[in-house]
Specification:
This protein is α+β, with helices and mostly antiparallel strands. Helix content is 36%, strand content 27%. Helix 1 crosses helix 3 and helix 2 packs antiparallel against helix 3. The model has no long low-confidence stretch (mean pLDDT 93).
Length: 103
């Protein structure tokens, strides 16, 4: 994965939150961009177990990945989700969200 610089991440955040007022609207803007650009499903490993990220969802205070393994489903906060190598297309939006959340 090519690491993006802070300026590029800030530009992505600005594009996602251009009309947003407050953290709730900014979170919604970032969620919208992640849902639009992140290629799902994709495989990853959570706590040593292989799972498939099936979709991205917005909760009241975070963005989560719906992970599945067989019949089991678990929501994992995107801030905690390990990404596979190579990363899925659009994963730069997860980096932008993580950068925004780290403020």
């Amino acid at each position: 994965m090519v690491s993006m610089g802070n300026a590029a991440l800030e530009a992505m955040i600005a594009a996602a939150t251009v009309d947003a007022y407050g953290d709730d609207e900014q979170l919604t803007g970032l969620s919208t961009m992640i849902e639009e650009y992140l290629a799902v499903p994709f495989p990853t490993t959570v706590l040593g177990v292989g799972v498939t990220v099936q979709k991205i969802d917005l909760t009241a205070d975070s963005i989560v990945a719906l992970c599945a393994r067989g019949r089991h489903r678990q929501r994992v906060d995107l801030l905690d989700l390990p990404l596979p190598i190579p990363v899925p297309e659009g994963a730069a939006w997860i980096d932008a969200y993580r950068h925004w959340a780290g403020r």
